[in-house]
Amino acid sequence: MGDQARIDEFSEYARARQSHLLRTVYLLCGDWHAAQDLAQTALLNLCKAWNRARRADSVDAYAQKTLIMGCPSTSPRSSAPRRWRPRSPRTSGR
């Protein structure tokens, strides 16, 4: 498959599924502006991996996974760093 055919195939998929992906990520993050950014990033990542994605059993499942892994609240890679806090010394109550 040529580059232009691959781009056309992805563009057709993205146009058809963009609103569904946007609604899904909105449910995850609760902010329309952040959802738009995250959906756009997911589509960009999906485009980069389109040859692999279109060979998957379900392109929609592949897209959903790409979307969810990019969402900060659900991604194990981008969770907030945990801060170490020293324990306060216990004093004897005697």
A few lines on this structure:
The protein is mainly α.
Work out the count of structural domains. 1
Regions with little confidence, pLDDT below 50 for 5+ residues: 75-82
Helix content: 55-70%
Number of strands: 0
The dominant shape is: elongated
Total of helices: 4
Order of helices and strands: HHHH
Description:
The chain has one domain. 65% of the residues lie in helices and 0% in strands. It contains four helices and no strands. It is elongated and about 70 Å long. It has 94 residues and is an all-alpha fold.
Furnish the topology, listing elements before pairings.
Elements: H1 3-29, H2 32-48, H3 50-54, H4 59-70
Q: What descriptors fit this protein?
A:
4 helices; 94 residues; mainly alpha; single chain
